[in-house]
Request: fold
Amino acid sequence: MAGPDSADRTDRHPLRCDHCGYPIPNEPLSTDVGRFCSKACHEAVIDESTVSTPEEYGRVATGVEPIDSLVSGGIPTDAFVLVSGEEGTRRSELLTELAWRALERGEPLVVVSYANPPTATLERFFENEWNVLSALEEDRLRVLDCFTHRLADREGFLDARNEWTAFVAEAATEAIVEVNDPGDVRETASTLLGTLDDLEMSETGLVVIDSLDELDALVQDQLVHNFVKDVRATVCKARYVPIVAGATTAGEESAPDDEYVFDGIVDLRLADHAESATRLTQIAIRKLIGTRYLPQWVTCEYEPGRGVTVSAPSRESSRPVDVDGTGRRRDRVDR
Reply:
């Protein structure tokens, strides 16, 4: 005859370990200090050792409406996510918004900038009406400069800056981390890890890489592959800090071509509207390991200050996504 613990395990809400928080798959180890899944968890409690539970670090809502409308409960915090789209799909704006939403949550942010000099990277926030000056002063934002090494006349570039660009550069002096040789992926990875240590980034924050196309132009494909695998292991899996990286879809020459190394892939595409000549951007989740998501395209629109939002036609054809005060979506799924 099955006992009460067996009933617990067959219930939709199984008995969970009082230390690690995960479901107990077999008979629980019941003691005077709780019920545990293993001796290791029991001994950790006896030794007064604590760990964060899965609920504390397992998911994070991005704050970007189209993505959160498709993903149930947020993206895993140990995920390396590729944002892939053809030119004109607002890929850069989406990456900038993902970065801003992390700062808006009060979390630290590191942007690895291959595509633009640091001031231009910061200017993208201001162009979207998102003011990052306070984040710079609070030391929550760093920019790894993987661009200016290519400038033949760096002094001329600095002299040509206007007053606003010079002001932003001065405000960001302590936030800009120069990578001496971005073509050396080991140096870039090492600099990134050192920056995460400085910001004490573990189980919090976001890393944005813009973009893998530029890295692919600097080094061989295999080195791009190795870089992605290395930072995925040392940042996402070891620290529970998610990474999002951009890449342009350009047929067979798109980079990178070994997409299996990513935990998630967000696709962007241009689509002709059925009733007009307007070309609209659509977004979909192609892959996201470790969580549920809706396998459908969502039509989007963009507005400075608001970011990328679900467009009106999609809102009319689906139920709204409720978001509570923490930024997490409730379980209301489009049908």
Notes: The CA atoms of residues 85 and 236 lie 23 Å apart.
